[in-house]
Design brief:
The protein is mainly α. Helices cover 50% and strands 6% of the residues. A two-stranded antiparallel ribbon has the order 1-2. It starts with 15 loop residues before the first helix and ends in a 12-residue tail after the last helix.
């Protein structure tokens, strides 16, 4: 038997080329933990509003995205309306039929309290709720600010969620964030080739 001694280093003691190797390995083998939360928010949104989710893919950097359909309100919700309603009719529909999901955030049925809508996360309790609901909240606060119909508004909601996901994923994959994770943990040590001790 023989004993081999090898030096171990903190991240900041590694050479620049080895640091880059560590960062690359970290990026490939770490798991983006927020992904499940975003999917939960997307599904909760679909459960609360007249939307049917089709194929979807997140994190593809403008890959497939989120495919959805908006069924006729009259078929599934008995309102006699369809997905092309817009403006004041859409606002009234949401206030009368769908606003409860947003009311949870401020606990009142009074119209005057709409100014506080969006301060909390009413779908799953996670911050992604605010991202997906932002277009609806903006529309409810100022219906004149959006010229599209319900289908368009749903598209804006999913677009906001996708953008938030991409920003979070980009941040999570950034060199700065990875270095911060390694250094905050404090107990990672590496061999001179970048492998973890």
């Amino acid at each position: 038997m023989r004993t081999v001694e090898k030096a171990v280093y903190k991240f900041n003691e590694l050479s620049d080329s080895v640091k880059q190797r560590v960062i690359s390995e970290w990026r490939q083998h770490d798991e983006f933990f927020d992904g499940g939360e975003i999917v939960d928010t997307m599904k909760a949104f679909v459960d609360q509003f007249p939307v049917e989710l089709g194929d979807w893919e997140l994190g593809g950097y403008r890959g497939k995205g989120i495919c959805y359909t908006v069924p006729s309100f009259s078929e599934d919700y008995g309102t006699g309306e369809d997905c092309t309603i817009k403006g004041l009719r859409l606002w009234k529909y949401l206030i009368n039929n769908r606003i409860s999901v947003v009311r949870v955030a401020y606990g009142s049925k009074k119209f005057a309290d709409l100014r506080n809508v969006g301060d909390e996360c009413p779908l799953t309790g996670m911050c992604w709720d605010c991202d997906v609901l932002e277009p609806v909240v903006g529309f409810l606060k100022n219906p004149a600010s959006f010229d599209g119909n319900w289908h368009d508004l749903v598209g804006e909601c999913f677009s906001h969620l996708e953008s938030a996901y991409e920003r979070a994923l980009e941040d999570w994959c950034s060199e700065e964030r990875i270095i911060e994770d390694i250094e905050e943990a404090g107990d990672y040590e590496f061999y001179d080739d970048g492998s973890i001790y």
